[in-house]
Specification:
With 300 residues, the protein is an alpha+beta fold. It is built from 9 helices and 11 strands. It folds into 3 domains: 2-50, no CATH class; 54-236, 2-Layer Sandwich (Beta-Lactamase); 242-296, Orthogonal Bundle (Arc Repressor Mutant, subunit A), CATH 1.10.10.10. An 8-stranded antiparallel beta sheet has the order 5-4-8-7-6-9-10-11, sandwiched between helices. The longest helix is centred in the N-terminal third of the chain and has 20 residues, at 68-87.
């Protein structure tokens, strides 16, 4: 986007002051960089959109009235989360929407990007700004807003059963790693707002970021968010046949295609047929990707 003005160029101190003021905005702001064009009287303004921590929080989920006693009671839920994280292969962390930070971060290294769990906890949402590619940060804030919009349309009794899942890159020593990120309410306020949210992080089978799904446990359909038209669309959930589940389970145990056939009393060619159909259904190209997809989306 370009804008032009024929007004005199501000002095350097004025430009620095203006630039600093814009950066200090509590939410996403337009940062203006001014460069003078040769042989013309116009000045070219380049606009950069800067993602800031405030972009991850929306007014409709503003939390108030949480007391120290509430946090003491929340320790039981956190103890359960900590116990689960000790046996899970996924990274686990808890978002506190009251204090706008991370209340707990597990020691699993997948999510930590080389930091300690304590360092990530102290960084809070600044962790995203430091370790997610710049071109995907705006996507995350849009997903966050869209997710709360979908959540608010759910009846209060169904809200604890909501989960949103999406894929994005983390930067680890300068290299991109695609992860699958899930978020679900851990504790709600009496008015149905999300106070604490449980997040899990696992390796993704996807090649591109996105793949945004909103599910309610026990329902046969789910919503998929389209980043192109910025809206949710209802889709039927993927289901696996018993043979497909068996193949995935045995593959996870290390059985070869021939050995899977022997276990299921099927020919090797029949197993290959099921695998091919399974790959097409899940839109993957290998049994490793199929296992990651099925695990991430609760199909097995």
């Amino acid at each position: 986007m370009q804008r032009y003005t024929n007004k005199p160029l501000p002095s350097l101190p004025e430009r620095v002051k203006s630039f600093t003021t814009l950066l200090d905005l509590p939410s996403r702001g337009e940062v203006l960089l001014l460069t003078r064009q040769k042989s013309v009287t116009l000045y070219h303004l380049t606009i950069l959109i800067v993602t800031q921590i405030g972009d991850f929080f929306i007014d409709s989920n503003r939390i108030t009235g949480i007391t120290d006693e509430d946090y003491i009671l929340a320790e039981r839920a956190l103890d359960a989360v900590k116990a689960i994280s000790q046996t899970a292969y996924q990274s686990v962390y808890v978002i506190d929407y009251n204090c706008r930070n991370f209340l707990y971060v597990s020691d699993n290294p997948l999510f930590l990007c080389g930091y300690s769990a304590q360092q990530v906890k102290e960084m809070g949402y600044a962790f995203y700004l430091n370790n997610v590619p710049k071109d995907e940060q705006a996507m995350l804030t849009e997903i966050n807003s869209a997710g709360f919009s979908a959540f608010e349309q759910v009846s209060p009794e169904d809200r604890p059963r909501c989960t949103m899942s999406y894929d994005f890159h983390l930067l680890i020593h300068g290299k991109k790693m695609m992860i699958n990120h899930k978020i679900t309410p851990l504790l709600l306020t009496p008015t149905g707002k999300v106070w604490l949210a449980l997040c899990t992080v696992a390796l993704s089978s996807r090649k591109e970021p996105g793949h945004i799904y909103f599910r309610i446990l026990g329902q046969s359909s789910h919503k998929e968010y389209d980043l192109a038209d910025h809206s949710w669309h209802t889709c039927e959930a993927i289901t696996l046949k018993p043979e497909e589940k068996q193949i995935l389970t045995l593959a996870a145990q290390g059985f070869t295609t021939k050995e899977i056939g022997e276990q299921l009393f099927r020919s090797e060619n029949t197993v290959k047929f099921y695998r091919k159909a399974l790959f097409e259904k899940l839109e993957v190209t290998s049994i490793t990707e199929a296992l990651a997809f099925a695990t991430n989306y609760g199909l097995i």
